[in-house]
Specification:
65 residues, mainly alpha
Length: 65
């Protein structure tokens, strides 16, 4: 079994609260030119994926930030 499948099972089987902040939509619209052309179901899927990434990723600032 590939390592990635094992890691997915370890970390993604737990239910995690997916949070997507409304202000992120403005950032996406300004940073991704095609975002405004996405159909709403594709935008919602993108929001879920971003929320899942943020919920399952550890961020550490540099030099104490």
């Amino acid at each position: 079994m590939p390592v990635w499948d094992v890691l997915k099972r370890l970390f993604l089987d737990e239910p995690t609260e997916i949070v997507f902040k409304e202000e992120w939509k403005d950032y996406l619209a300004g940073s991704l030119p095609l975002y405004s052309r996405f159909p709403s179901d594709l935008r919602n899927k993108l929001h879920q994926k971003i929320g899942q990434f943020v919920a399952t990723t550890y961020f550490e600032g540099c030099s104490g930030l």
